[in-house]
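dumping this here so i dont lose it
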């Protein structure tokens, strides 16, 4: 393994979808007009990436397809970076979820491992697919600069993995719409050392750190 290889990965959350804030999970809503503006503004200027990887959900993929065409970048669609499934909460606002139990969201945010919504994807299953996608991307594209267009849950899970955070603390990480998080990985395989360069920032894509 080459310890001198540096792989840069930018993780970008989608912009606002049609319908605004709600537990959308794997519902396939497109971006709103505001969401398109947020994402286009976030990548204005130079595009430092060698390729794009996108969730298959429309709020990510349609923007990634546009950026791919506009910048002449290869695009991979990765099923494993879909958002976590929220089960019975899919499509519901926070107010609707908490209507009959005002403390339900606080319990979930404090312990998303044991306080999952009914029918939700388990965190071990979610972690397994996201970490597998992350590991595969690093192995296949070592030494390149990748943009992954995905979801808040995916970004939280990648950060928890590379920073050694327990999954119970996922919601201590705030992920804004169209925010960009950059990780640099020195080396390959088990010897690789990931470093967080910045998190959740807007319009930082153009500057290579």
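and the seq i came up w/
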């Amino acid at each position: 393994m080459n310890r001198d290889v540096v792989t840069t990965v930018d993780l970008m959350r989608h912009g606002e979808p049609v319908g605004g804030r709600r537990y959308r999970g794997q519902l396939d809503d497109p971006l709103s007009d505001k969401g398109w503006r947020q994402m286009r503004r976030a990548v204005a200027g130079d595009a430092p990436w060698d390729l794009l990887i996108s969730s298959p959900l429309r709020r990510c993929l349609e923007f990634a397809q546009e950026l791919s065409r506009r910048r002449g970048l290869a695009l991979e669609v990765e099923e494993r970076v879909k958002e976590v499934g929220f089960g019975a909460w899919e499509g519901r606002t926070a107010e609707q979820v908490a209507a009959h139990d005002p403390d339900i969201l606080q319990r979930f945010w404090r312990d998303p491992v044991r306080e999952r919504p009914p029918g939700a994807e388990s965190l071990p299953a979610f972690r397994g697919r996201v970490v597998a996608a992350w590991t595969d991307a690093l192995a296949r594209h070592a030494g390149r600069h990748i943009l992954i267009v995905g979801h808040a849950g995916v970004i939280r899970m990648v950060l928890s993995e590379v920073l050694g955070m327990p999954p119970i603390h996922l919601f201590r990480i705030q992920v804004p719409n169209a925010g960009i998080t950059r990780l640099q990985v020195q080396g390959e395989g088990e010897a690789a050392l990931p470093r967080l360069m910045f998190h959740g920032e807007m319009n930082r894509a153009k500057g290579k750190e």
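The chain is about 30% helix and 20% strand.
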